[in-house]
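Bug #77: duplicate submission created two jobs. Keeping one. Sequence:
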Amino acid sequence: YASTWRAERQRVLDELRVHLVNSDGAAATARSLFTCAVHPCGGGTIEKALLALGIYDARARDLAQQVDELTARAHEEGERERVTHDAVRRCLSTQGVQVVIFCDEASTADALTQSLRTALGATFEVLRHAIADASTLEGGRVEHWRRFLTDPERYRVLVCDARAEEGLNLHGGHKVVLHYDLPAAPNRIEQRLGRLDRYGVGNAVRSLVPVCESDLPEMAWVACLAEGLQVFSASMASLQYMIEETLRNAIQDWYNEGVDGLLRWKDQLAGPTGWATRERRRIDQQDNLDAMGDPQSEEFDQLEKVDADWRSWRDAFDGFALGTLLFCSRNEPWAGKLLEGERVFRLNYVRENNHRTLLSLPEFISQFLGTIDTEDRHSTARAPLTYPYAFSRYTVMSKEGQSRALRSLRYGDPLVESLLSFCQNDDRGRVFAMWRHRSDYEARDASGCDLWFRFDFLVEARLPDADDDAARALSRRAEQHFPPQFHTVWVDATREATMAPPVHLAEDYRQSELGPGRDYNLNPRRWQILQMQDNVPWLLEWRRHCEESAERALKFMTSHELLRQHQEHGLVSLRSQHATRVAQVESRLTRLTGEAQSAERRDLEEEEVLHSRLIDAIRVPAISIDVAGAVFTSAYTPFAR
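Kept job's structure:
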């Protein structure tokens, strides 16, 4: 689109640039003016920016005031909003397309939301992304903007500001990104795109940008991003060092020469022999070199062995998801041949008739949001379906599986991670007590009843609790060398601890009396009956017995030989990997110069710090009680039969 106000703004801003080119603090001034030039909707005023830089020159302030006034005039003109409205309408004319609009400033996003609602009328719902305090959401109510994910047919436009550039998960479906403005930091644009392509979706994410052809710096900046860095079509993750080093020079060139200096940076970046392509090729070559130095490990063989045993995983998953949480499994039609026992299915949340999944609907949507397929015609607001899954990797990687975007139920998948999170936050079934009646049992205690405590321990590397990418990466690295271990310790009434309890304690739970005995879950009613018995001596000081038994079990676990061997193996593996990584970084240092070499040195220092933290995390692991229970065993039963 064209704008006479923006053209005049660019002319005055260029005059201000020339006026200040020889001023003190040129680097900071150049960066501030550059941001204003390429990001005209960024908020704030140039006059305030100059004052913050200590520039009080009367002529400079007069020009800055003119630029600020022209910026306001261009905004009042409304051309950028008009072309944005037209672009959104064109996108929405295609069935199933949703539009995510990013603005830098919250005030800009608020104003655009209102203008879009007026322009689109009641035909389409426009939502405004907002970060709500969980304490303000009553009764498990979901944030209003999340309807963009749960009801995509009705809610097809979502307007976001800079706060949504990190942490937001909008992947899946057919979505278009409209960048209402483009920040002066290229990595922020990649962060925006990452919100929609976080896990990799079937459709490529298309980007739209309203650009004023009367504003030459904005036109040049878009060309640098699209043609030079190819930010809208390829990942920039490997270009961060190169961008940081060369953009600094490009800004100075723009400050000295104007738009021509910026376009020269674009030409240097673009093409098969440009800086961007060469840097990506160099990184690929270094990655190949690093891969050659990775030591062969038996862990990969073990991983393949575990991955091939998908039937055991199927039985465990079905037992928990279907048998315990009471999800339903909806089988999907499949044209190809499936392995014996394999199925392609979706989990179905159900709360009707005699079948009720053991989660409330708001709780399910909140914890399993990334797994819900809102586009499947059978998935409804009251009975949502997950994406399709299979247990065998062979099924998922088949031609049909890939064409249908089939997901594999493995560690790291959103569904498995959601189930894990639910387990960690829900305490049902983690504490129990039971009475085991066996008519042929011979009790050791004079009361005719023996008491055993059971403690299931989780042993893992001791790392601080955090929920960010760095913490998760550190946790994965720790688990590579020191995988989580589960151990069961039994403690009898005399505080003797063991991992090899009497045979009768390992028997399956018996719900009926069709054999020589029965097991009774000690619910509140039965516990009250037990308290009225005179021959169960431990109940008078029950809390003390529980605490002392837990303390004894923890001490037994902490000093056990199995744990010592596990620690020793983890430390040897960690030190071997650390030595390899240090050698690789030192190899790169010999070939790098400048900022890239400095960055590698910082990586080496960080590697030493992480290595030290991992050593401590394995030497003093975290040992927590995952499940605790009490088992009373006797030849008689105090309950009516």
